[in-house]
């Protein structure tokens, strides 16, 4: 009988706490709306856009430099190959 009272008491406590927790309000936050309509959000978007543009410019410069180096290397390679062939022909 004593153990049944403990079990019933524990069940009542568990059910009571679960009901109290479910009474909390659920709130949804629309991040897009916050970023687009607040001043801080607009500044963040502006900073991210400028950072993106700078990064794209840096990547473009690096790509152009690599292309120049590649063409320079290819030209030197073909020149060296032609020169070595001429040397072999004269020997």
Topology, please?
Elements: H1 2-21, H2 31-37, H3 39-90
What is the string of SSEs from the N terminus onward?
Answer: HHH
What share of the residues does DSSP label as strand, in percent? under 5%
Structural class: mainly alpha
Mean pLDDT: 80
Tell me about the biggest sheet?
Answer: none
Gyration radius from CA atoms, angstroms: 37 Å
Quaternary class: single chain
Describe the structure.
- There is one protein chain.
- With 91 residues, the protein is mostly helical.
- It has 3 helices and no strands.
- α2 packs across α3 (39-90).
- The radius of gyration is 37 Å and the shape is elongated.
Question: How would you summarize what this structure contains?
Answer:
This protein has helices at 2-21, 31-37, 39-90. It is mainly α.
Characteristic key phrases:
single chain, 91 residues, mainly alpha
């Amino acid at each position: 009988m004593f153990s049944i009272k403990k079990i019933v008491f524990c069940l009542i406590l568990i059910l009571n706490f679960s009901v109290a927790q479910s009474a909390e309000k659920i709130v949804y936050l629309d991040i897009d709306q916050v970023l687009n309509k607040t001043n801080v959000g607009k500044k963040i978007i502006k900073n991210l856009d400028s950072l993106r543009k700078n990064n794209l410019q840096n990547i473009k410069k690096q790509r152009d430099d690599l292309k120049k180096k590649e063409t320079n290397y290819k030209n030197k390679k073909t020149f060296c190959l032609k020169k070595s062939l001429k040397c072999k022909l004269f020997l």
